[in-house]
Amino acid sequence: MVTINFRAADGTLRTVEAEPGSTVMEAAIQSKVPGITAECGGACACATCHVYVDADWFERLPKAEPMEEDMLDFASDLRKTSRLSCQIKVAPELDGLTVETPARQG
Question: Please, what are the domains in the chain?
Fold first, then answer.
């Protein structure tokens, strides 16, 4: 299992365990993490699983594909470290990944 830390906009930290091969979004939904609604179910067809990747982790992730970059245009309050959690695959090297959920989605 891989540990993922979700920090809410208010600073509350929640740590969950995720299966390698799943996505950060799937881990959030399975663990009922507030702030991730994932209306499209992970099809990269909305931006309701938008997260801010902790700066220490951002460069370690694979670059966003063009489809994800296009969908991020629909996210609120974009930052340099914005990603869609449905597009971040859980892997052992991401153990300890920290992401922040925005104050609002969409």
Answer: 2-100 (3.10.20.30)
**Contact status, residue 7 vs residue 101, Cβ threshold 8 Å:** yes
* Tens digits of residue pLDDT in 35-74: 999 999 999 999 999 999 999 999 999 999 999 999 999 9
Nearest-angstrom CA–CA distance, 25 and 31: 10
Q: Is 85 helix (H, G, I), strand (E, B) or coil?
A: helix
Distance CA(91)–CA(36), nearest Å, equals 20
Kindly report the pTM of this predicted structure.
0.95
Report how far residue 64's alpha carbon sits from residue 36's, in angstroms, rounded to the nearest whole number. 19
Whether residue 76 contacts residue 16, with contact meaning beta carbons closer than 8 Å, is answered with no
**Runs of H (alpha helix) within the chain:** 24-30, 55-58, 66-72
Amino acid identity at 103: A
